[in-house]
Amino acid sequence: MEKKMKTDIILAGVGGQGILSIAAVIGLAAVKETLFIKQSEIHGMSQQGGEVYSHLRLSDAPVHSDMIPLGEADLILAVEPLEGLRYLPYLKKEGWLISNTAPVKNIADYPDPERIYGEIRRRPHHLLLDAAALAREAGSAKAANMVMLGAASPFIQVKEDHLLEAIRALFSRKGEEVVETNIRAFRAGKEAAMKKR
Amino acid sequence: MEERMFLLGDEAVAQAALDAGVSGCYAYPGTPSTEILEYVRASAQAAEAGVVREWSANEKTAVEAALGMSYAGKRAMVCMKHVGLNVAADPFMNAAITGVNGGLLVVVADDPSMHSSQNEQDSRYYGHFAQIPVLEPASQQEAYDMVREGFDLSERFGVPVLVRLVTRLSHSRSAVVRRERLPQRPLKLPGDPKQFILLPSIARERYRRLLADRPLFVEEAHREEGYNQYLPAAESRTGVIATGLAYNYLRENFPGRLPFHLLKVSFYPLPVRMIEEMFGEVDEVIVLEEGYPYVEEQLLGIPPRRHPRIRGRLDGTLPRDGELNPWLVGKALGRNLPEPEEVPGVAVGRPPSFCPGCGHIDVYNALNEALEPYGPGRVFSDIGCYTMGALPPYNAINTCVDMGASITMAVGAADAGLVPSVAVIGDSTFTHSGMTGLLDAANKRSPVTLIISDNDATAMTGGQPPSGLGKIEQICLGLGVEKEHVRTIIPLRKYHEENVKVMKEEIAYKGVSVIVARRECIRLVAARKCNKK
Q: pTM for this one?
């Protein structure tokens, strides 16, 4: 059976930025739509302030490989700008690179951010937004991951209602205020992305 | 209606064991296997069923406890990372000789490409070594089904069964369909009261039985609708043997009808008749396997086969080391795939580092200062977060080999004349495999100083409760370290001068000394505060 419709997404960031929460939200939403899904995560040593990434594959046909093949990702969603560049070998020529501009400078040789933005702007399809600022406006700097998810939502083949439901389900344990902040962050990200496209 | 769950490969293993009526799950945490017991520990189903699910002190004690559970007639599962099976090799090998009473599964998660390991050893060789059946699932659903059926196999054949996972399966989620729950087995002693007594006379008899049963395992490898499938392709002269996860990469490249003869392998020993059948139809066979060229080597023989030609990791068709991926497999099968784009030079690496405020930082700052007069090259360390002391700006340690090797290597180096020698180990690693080494050191009054960087946690794998919590000093005293040379410090910047002084004193002492540097893992403190909110 050939795949009819698929979205292959790489989520990238630094340990502590909530990469796996983004994956969990999309995963929960996709399960509601009876899509086939595989989502790989990186755990362990790489989590201690280092690179964190997840491969997320959605399709209406069975997904075989847990990893996205090189050159076939439709979208890289980077919660940290340097981290998005690391996975460019996976991105299709016409794929989207959606990146936060706010750097996490926990290494001594962190490059000049302008050089990073330059590389991002070289992609035919890219979107840069200051998720940190949008998250603060939404009520919490921690919600930058949901800003990024909102920005990417038009590119992901799951219904927005299902994404919002999944955000509620994921954060409900932490109280209504946290849920609302994350939903505001999601909406702010989406709005910013629609303006820039 | 069937129940679907969205599970990591590790979690699918755990859920399958619970649904198969397991009575005890045993493990020592280790990436990428940790989530198996984490899931069982968090499971309401396990709590309600009274499943035993504590962390063990190490993989050896875990296998032995699981074997005891099996002796008593109940189903048991033991889980570890690949190098953990080295620690548990003694009971593992001998459990193949005793055989089982209740079903016993040994689940081992390999880490090809060494994402967080010291090597990429392939556990299929251990199954081969012990001469027991090995299951190698390719998907989360297969992991669930094979664990569930693995208990039946173990009971039917009367031996432990090894289940081999790899990182990309352990740590990837997909939908899993559950099956009906089975009850736990009742307490029941082995039918043969001598089965588990491996005196030479009995062991020889048990071993002959294991050898005599091997043809049954080989028959299982050929079972219709079983784990191994041979699909001929009439017009092709090429065969592909795909094991475990490599099968997914094959399908990723060829989602439709395959232009090769295919042998999908998920059960070992190998299905020899299926292989012979394929060999009769082809001029070349390409072997796709995650890990070592285990199947490929068996097919090659000595001298290497001339017909059909065997291709794989040994002739350069695929890389000799590291993980496979869809691109590598596609290229090996002759697809014309474009070269991947390069990572831009500006994307420098971001190696793991200590969390801000971590106690290990203060330990290394004090140790570097205390050792300054003696010169470099004398710090033997171990496996844990504190191994990052090897990285700049600390450059504080000189070795990291296996669990517990810090103390014993320091003793050996001191024997050779490298005095003083210092060992740095974590609290969980110390109780895992460091205590016996400290006993050696105390017995011979070796001039070494052991620093136990104690953060009250098995931190690197997520902060599991350590076996020696609140007992570290007592253990050291009990092993024979003199009372005045068991010192406790608090690794905080404000005590830096004091801590350097204590380290200098103990390093200068010409016998065994232990410095317990105790401060709780900063992540656990943060997590507790977060939960209180």
A: 0.95
